[in-house]
Amino acid sequence: MIKEIRFTVTGVVRKPLAGEWFLGNKGMPIQAIHDFHTTQFPILKVEVKETQTTAGEKVA
Hints:
Blueprint: E1 2-14, E2 21-23, E3 29-31, E4 41-50
Antiparallel strand pairs: 1-4, 2-3
């Protein structure tokens, strides 16, 4: 089960490649579906924290 997803600004500003996360114009994280050829954005690093579920734990 995923407990937490963190987006961290790397400080690199460039044209995002397909599959990379970047910071959009309104401050929201966006994943690029294709390579960008003109516009540059701050690149984000994604960290996913997962937890193990036990047999007795309910998953909603």
